[in-house]
Hints:
Strand content: 15-25%
CATH superfamily of the largest domain: ANL, N-terminal domain
Number of helices: 22
Bound molecules: 5'-O-[(S)-butoxy(hydroxy)phosphoryl]adenosine
CATH architecture of the largest domain: 3-Layer(aba) Sandwich
Structural class: alpha/beta
Mean pLDDT: 95
Helix content: 25-40%
Largest sheet: 8 strands, mixed
Number of strands: 30
Number of domains: 2
CATH topology of the largest domain: Rossmann fold
CATH class of the largest domain: Alpha Beta
Shape: globular
Distance between the termini: 28 Å
Amino acid sequence: MTTEMQSHFDVLLAEDRRYRPRPEFTSEANVSDPTIYEKAAADPEAFWAEQARELEWFTPWETVLEWDRPWAKWFRGGRMNASYNCLDRHLGTRGAKRAIVWEGEFGEERTLTYRELHCEVCRFANVLKHLGLRVGDRVAIYMGMVPELPIAMLACARIGCPHSVVFGGFSPESLSDRINDAEARVLITQDGGFRRGSVVPLKQNADAALERSASIEHVVVLRRAGDRAPVKMCEGRDRWWHELIEGVEDECDAEPLDSEHMLYILYTSGTTGKPKGIVHTTAGYLLGTALTTKWVFDLKEDDVYWCTADIGWVTGHSYIVYGPLANGATCVMYEGAPDYPDKDRFWDLVARHQVTVLYTAPTSIRMFMKWGAEYPQRHDLSSLRLLGSVGEPINPEAWVWYNQHIGGGRCPIVDTWWQTETGMILITPLPGLTETVPGSATVPFPGISASIVDENGEEIEPGTAAGYLCINHPWPAMFRTIFRDPDRFVENYWARFPGRYFTGDGAKQLENGYFAIIGRVDDVLNVAGHRIGTWEVESALIDSGDVAEAAVVGMQHEIKGQGIAAFVTLKGDIEGTDSEQEKLRRHVAEKIGPIARPDQIIFAADLPKTRSAKIMRRLLRDIADGRVLGDTTTLADPAVVEQLKSQYEAQGKTE
Ligand code: WT7
């Protein structure tokens, strides 16, 4: 940890930086009894069991937790269905309540009540059955932010087909890798999506992906972009969504599934080139997401809740689809970009739909800050009563701006730490109880135990040093394995600190026990709140054919938090020109997706290596961030670094 960072942590707890919950908020809050933490800690299984009774079960469970480390089974023997819990359960009392309030990028609106959503889901579930899908078959979904995306997910869940949603910004190759790993039988996509007024050719990308993906038997195509995204339909393989649902029954019994039935796979980047298929199962996941939604966002019957994430990421799975719908909430869903047609689009949405709870990411908040307070000031944001943040550490400046300019100084902010693997929020304030400090996600949720440990797995005292963030006990929404790679599951997460789950994050506990997250300690970057493996970007660079060697590191970035810096040695006589830089950037974007596009490419004759030929990434990170260089004594050729530094200063231009 740098000294700069150390002093950053020292000031976090300063008295004038603490925000106590307002008594008016606490008196109405879903959780206002501070003994909840002790009660849950005294008997976590009893705590989770009590909460699980709030869900609807077809068959009650026999045991709450079976823990054969690291293999967990929650609510064994129980049978339930996530789609049933998100829909059917509400029909009696909330049939006419709005479930999804959708807005397209061009301003079109579509509202689905719980009854309507139930019909659409049932109808599409029947379509999937007619296509021959059976319990356990995997379905890949590659769509934009349209209501049919949650409809498709809930239809899969209804008939016991695990879904694998692939973010619509991923390339054909990323899509086909994910389809192949999951061996999906059906792909659900759309002709095109809209982003900042232009068309994302989803079906065309899917066609390219399917050239390399043999497991797909049927493709269902939703019409969204129409004439703006002409598509070729492959006879015998591709069918239009609207044709398939015609005349199909809108009742479909929800399959009574085992608690541990696989609900979905979601791929995330790790430290190798192959993305990890994170596996979530039914009952524990639904419990974890439903309860955290209710407690962390203090969800009330008349709230209008808006999580601005894309459903292609875990935030959307847990906190747009499963958690809020399990609570019978009204959820806003927006298709497009925050600056389309203008930079006040989000605030226009908040005001028009009277949003009460808003959940977004630090990278967006920093972007709003940069655009200026005049955009939120154009709108009446007084409907808001609670704000959330997720995806990366929120810097105190952004926290304070969010509080003042969006929350009007009256809304609690919940900084929620969690991961694709954890499925649910694990470290977070409870808004009626927890005193917050900008820059800290505060404390573990009731029933969760977290520690910071050193290299040897020894717990570090709060208020002393930084270390590795671990979770000490199983939790219901934990991922159960990596799809088809149980060894990697054990090695990656459970082997480094025996007895604990290792998150991959560095963190520090402040003197009062609050957790402040520093960031990833592995070769994974967090770019605008999205995980990208350095290895993935490096292999994409090599794949261009022009690159002999590449080393990718994170660099500080004003908006994205972390940007991507690539140090590249070109082959033979290829010249490191501006157009070569652009070519490589484009290649990476095409290969992985636009989010992986490097911010800086630095050409170098050599990369700094140790005498055992290991690339010294630490030095590259220092160069990329313009820091004074650390220890260079193990370097094989110190001249390389000096050369790199001057090259960096000369040509390192951020886009
Ligand atoms: C990584 C997980 C959880 C949904 C979005 C990202 C970082 C996430 C916070 C936070 C500090 C955070 C961590 C974590 N992270 N939330 N509130 N404060 N860091 O999911 O792609 O699985 O990434 O995001 O580094 O390990 P993900």
